[in-house]
Design a protein that fits this description.
Helix content: 40-55%
Strand order of the largest sheet: 2-1-3-4
Order of helices and strands: EHEHEEHHHHHH
CATH topology of the largest domain: Glutathione S-transferase Yfyf (Class Pi), Chain A, domain 2
CATH architecture of the largest domain: Up-down Bundle
CATH class of the largest domain: Mainly Alpha
Largest sheet: 4 strands, mixed
Strand content: 5-15%
Shape: globular
Length: about 220
């Protein structure tokens, strides 16, 4: 049985969980708060970051880093390929995964997590209004880019759903939980995201809650 060390608002764990759901891979979620830097967790992953996956039956090395873990299951489970197509298609999927995992996370998800989640759960003080305004401003540009991508293809990276869609939806879902998404003037991105939210793999994520922090009233709704 696989164990997945994660916490509800980790966007990288969400990306992986979406992949596992699409592929039908069972796992046991294990709550891990990486900011606590628990000794046993640091022993598994010295970087102290989620997600980490451990195969408790085989006793092998832990799988670390969301992209590396996703690639592992892409290589070992044929169902629902998420990095597919020609070499050029696969390169584009990986480029866009990196875009959402780095640029979107840096500009939007990370500051929202820090100001609206981490400061609250660790009692580090009040949110920085300037940082939140910058994140809200940045999300408009990222949604514009998603609109542009969807102008040219059915899904984020091409004609079929891919890991790029999972990466984008994972980041957006965390930002949405933290009240950082305004869908105004982004109809294409909104339709795509509603489609992602409707998938069976997505529903368990939307049902989860982070202690001390409640999402907006329409967080789970499919009629944004």
């Amino acid at each position: 049985m696989w164990q997945l060390y994660q916490f509800p608002l980790c966007p990288f764990s969400r990306k992986l969980r979406l992949l596992l759901g699409e592929k039908g891979i069972g796992y046991e979620p294990v709550r891990e708060s990486p900011w606590l830097r628990r000794d046993e967790f640091i022993d598994m992953n010295p970087a102290g970051q989620t997600p980490v996956m451990v195969d408790t039956e085989r006793g092998g090395l832990p799988l670390i880093d969301s992209l590396a873990i996703c690639e592992y299951f892409e290589e070992t489970v044929e169902k629902a390929a998420m990095i597919n197509g020609t070499a050029a298609n696969r390169a584009e999927i990986r480029r866009l995964v990196a875009w959402f995992d780095t640029q979107f996370y840096r500009d939007v998800t990370a500051p929202l997590l820090n100001e609206r989640m981490l400061k609250r759960v660790t009692r580090q003080g009040s949110p920085d209004g300037a940082a939140l305004r910058e994140a809200m401003k940045a999300v408009v540009g990222h949604l514009d880019y998603i609109d542009y991508l969807l102008d040219h293809s059915t899904w984020i990276a091409g004609a079929t759903m891919s890991l790029a869609d999972l990466a984008a939806a994972a980041q957006i879902s965390v930002a949405d939980y933290l009240g950082g998404i305004d869908w105004k003037s982004h109809e294409q991105a909104k339709r795509w995201y509603v489609g992602m939210k409707s998938r069976p793999s997505f529903r368990p994520l939307l049902a989860e809650r982070m202690e001390l922090i409640s999402p907006p009233a329409d967080y789970e709704k499919l009629d944004l």
